[in-house]
Design brief:
Blueprint lengths: L3 H31 L11 H13 L1 H9 L7 H5 L2 H9 L1 H9 L1 H17 L7 H13 L1 H9 L7 H5 L2 H9 L1 H9 L1 H18 L5 H13 L1 H9 L7 H5 L2 H9 L1 H9 L1 H21 L5 H13 L1 H9 L7 H6 L1 H9 L1 H9 L1 H10 L18
Length: 374
């Protein structure tokens, strides 16, 4: 009887261990079944991830919203209100299926892919090279649009030869040329992200401050040329003191002065974008004809005092008191209601475009000019 106790204890221990072993797999299976969808990884291929990452790079607003709330991809109203996303999902059924089943996992996988791309394939691209390319793209929007649609054009000899500005830029920036030719898609993706970061960094600059600076630059082309070449001159006391007009402008526009000194390069990029947007907006305006610009250009050339004052403050063209004191301008505007209308809508852009307008006598083919409005 002495040996029965240990035998029974051994039997019970064996039975308990067997029970634990049989329960463990069931628990593990139950745990896997209960695992939240966002804890499982997506199974997209590298190629699918690359395509999705490229789509998000080109649609930063959609990307930002999806990264904040991946479930939006299953929101019919959200998808319908973003036609580009709707089209992309229709053209990529595998990505759409994975996003529908597990949006969190797909977005996590895409973000990991994005970070790896930054660290690995583009690790040789310096910030300076991206900055140089970004400035070139900002200054040549037509070339930029084509390269963003098809980065491989940078290796197309015919395309480069037909765009001397691009040819000259690549020749003078061998680092950019090498990186672009080695991996054009990756380089363009990085340039777009760089551009977006620069825009976000500069978002505190108001449109009013940019308009004031743009107007000053238009009125002082020599100062403008030097500041665009070297924005840091705004912090050079000797340079500012040597240009009283700039000194006076900065003193009377503290908002511009503060933003400009905080980030000279960023501010100048914003000002140049503003300047191009103003010009492009006016050129796209179907109501503005070459005849109106030519007519007002000739009027300004014949009235240098008025031209100088309007250059400093274009809004004077809509100031009744100023018009009463300048009967020649008042009479002209009365005889040219279309010019009067354009000045009323956008005096700064119209005055600037009229001043920069090249008349036929300065080399423009006469067939391109419309008859002067009388």
């Amino acid at each position: 009887m002495k040996h029965k106790g240990p035998a029974i204890q051994y039997w019970f221990a064996t039975l308990a261990l067997s029970a634990l072993i049989s329960v463990a797999p069931a628990r593990a299976q139950s745990s896997n079944q209960n695992m939240m969808p966002q804890d499982r990884d997506a199974d997209l291929t590298r190629q699918q991830l690359a395509a999705f990452d490229q789509f998000l790079d080109k649609h930063s607003e959609i990307a930002e919203q999806l990264r904040k709330d991946p479930s939006l991809v299953n929101n019919d109203q959200f998808v319908a209100s973003h036609p580009d996303l709707q089209t992309y999902l229709q053209q990529h059924p595998e990505v759409r299926e994975d996003l529908n089943q597990n949006p969190n996992a797909v977005m996590h996988q895409e973000q990991r892919f994005d970070r790896r791309e930054d660290r690995n394939s583009d690790r040789d691209i310096t910030r300076a090279e991206l900055g140089n390319m970004d400035r070139f793209m900002d200054s040549h929007p037509e070339i930029a649009e084509q390269l963003r649609k098809n980065p491989a054009l940078v290796d197309n000899k015919e395309f480069v030869a037909n765009h001397p500005a691009l040819q000259e830029f690549l020749a003078s920036h061998p680092g950019v040329r090498e990186e672009m030719k080695e991996n054009p898609n990756a380089f363009m993706n990085r340039e777009e992200r760089f551009d977006q970061r620069e825009n976000r960094r500069d978002h505190v600059v108001t449109r009013g401050e940019l308009a004031n600076m743009d107007h000053f630059m238009d009125s002082h082309p020599e100062i403008a040329e030097q500041l665009r070449k070297n924005p840091a001159l705004v912090d050079n006391k000797e340079f500012v003191q040597g240009h009283p007009a700039l000194q006076e402008f900065l003193a009377s526009h503290p908002g511009v002065r503060e933003e400009y000194k905080e980030n000279p390069s960023g501010f100048m990029r914003q000002e140049q974008r503003f300047d191009r947007a103003e010009d492009n907006g006016l050129r796209r305006d179907p109501d503005v004809t070459r005849g109106e610009l030519s007519s007002f250009h000739e009027f300004l050339e014949g009235h240098s005092n008025i031209a100088g004052e309007l250059s400093k403050d274009p809004s004077l063209a809509t100031n009744e008191e100023y018009l009463e004191n300048h009967p020649a301008l008042k009479t002209y505007l009365r005889a040219n209601p279309k010019v009067h209308e354009e000045l009323g809508e956008n005096p700064q852009s119209f005055v600037k475009s009229a001043q920069q307008f090249e008349s036929p006598s300065k080399g423009m083919p006469s067939a391109m000019a419309e008859p002067k409005v009388k």
